[in-house]
Design a protein that fits this description.
The chain has 365 residues and is mostly helical. It is built from 18 helices and 2 strands. The chain has a two-stranded antiparallel ribbon with strand order 1-2. The termini are far apart.
Length: 365
């Protein structure tokens, strides 16, 4: 809402017009004489109410609804333009309609991130994260700030900026702190899950697996999030070489996604299962599961297309007979990852290529 640093007759008249009151009604509303209002209206910026009346005007403005605030600023802006004076009001925090705009923009950011439109998502986030400081915000504003900060973490994670002062980890920790302050346990637990993903992406696989294990049975999380934590336990274990147990954990998560009727998660789980079976050397099962993932998974997301092609390529490279097909799949994934700025995925693709080339060289000796 707006606040006035110093009232003159000009601001008082703008407030009367904003409240849609006559001179007499406005005088009654403030508890002052009609002639006092008439004086303000006549002299405008050249007269100033007494200090006690300034406080009354502050209260009247503070109690006005959002529509009246908008009319007040509009009338005052018009008057300032006519009189060539500077604005006498400042924003003391977000107005009700700004919260609505902020909420709408958060929905747009989620869509932009799902399409890996990082530039647009970053632009929308910048509108709000640089606009207010926490002391300016009430609980609703702090909630929106925390959600925005968490989405900034998602943006940084998808771009591969995992650690450091301008990273996913930093953003997630900031969002978690605000949700903890607001006492919203479910959101805090979701940020714990995001921070576990950061641990996995930064190579701390044992730490990530332990974090996922705790969250897989954490009642603060909804059943879908607990199932995702269970799936990611398997992911971390598989990356750490424990493929057999990883496959069993992933299969349990897959059943959860089937019970929950979550087709996209179910498809992703089959992709993860395929990689776990590749790790055990069971290429037939790996190809079976990756085919399910490729034919059932959502392909409108560039990120998911990159992940599917990378997983498929990794499996095909494991068999000398399908090595060329594997390299082609990795090339498709790399081109798409480059186009959308997915540096973490590019690093993974390059690591697969390097590992495969090294293994191929050993076989030729």
């Amino acid at each position: 809402m707006a606040t006035v640093h110093h009232w003159t007759g000009l601001e008082a008249r703008a407030l009367r017009l904003a409240l849609r009151m006559s001179v007499r009604a406005f005088a009654g509303h403030l508890g002052v004489a009609v002639r006092t209002i008439s004086k303000w209206e006549k002299l405008l910026a050249s007269t100033e109410p007494r200090s006690d009346t300034q406080a009354i005007l502050d209260t009247a403005l503070a109690r006005a609804d959002a529509a009246a605030h908008l009319r007040f600023e509009t009338f005052l802006s018009e008057a300032d333009g006519q009189l060539a004076t500077g604005r006498r009001i400042t924003a003391a925090g977000p107005r009700a309609w700004e919260y609505e705009s902020w909420t709408d923009d958060l929905d747009r950011i989620v869509v932009a991130l799902s399409r890996q439109n990082f530039a647009f998502a970053d632009n929308l986030l910048g509108r709000w994260l640089t606009r207010f400081t926490p002391p300016q915000l009430d609980d609703k504003g702090l909630y929106l700030l925390a959600r925005s900060t968490a989405l900034l973490g998602d943006l940084k994670r998808d771009q591969g900026a995992v650690l450091g002062p301008l990273s996913a980890q930093h953003a997630y920790a900031g969002a978690r702190s605000i949700f903890n302050q607001l006492d919203i346990p479910r959101r805090v637990a979701q940020l714990d899950l995001s921070l576990a993903v950061v641990s996995e992406m930064s190579g701390r696989l044992e730490t990530a697996a332990r974090q996922y294990e705790h969250l897989a049975v954490d009642d603060r999380l909804a059943r879908r999030d607990r199932a995702r934590a269970r799936l990611w336990v398997g992911t971390a274990l598989s990356k750490d070489g424990n493929h057999d147990y990883a496959a069993r954990v992933m299969l349990a998560a897959t059943r959860d996604f089937e019970d929950l009727a979550e087709p996209d998660d179910w498809s992703v789980a089959h992709q993860k299962l395929a990689l776990a079976h590749r790790g055990t050397g069971d290429l037939a099962s790996a190809l079976y599961f990756i085919d399910i993932a490729r034919h059932t998974g959502a392909t409108d997301s560039p990120m998911q297309r990159v992940r599917l092609d990378t997983a498929h390529g990794h499996i095909l490279l494991s068999d000398p007979a399908t090595r060329d097909d594997g390299l082609q799949a990795l090339d498709r994934a790399a081109k798409l990852a480059t186009r959308y700025g997915m540096s973490h995925q590019l690093s993974s693709i390059e690591s697969i290529r390097t590992t495969t080339a090294g293994a191929e060289g050993l076989r030729r000796r």
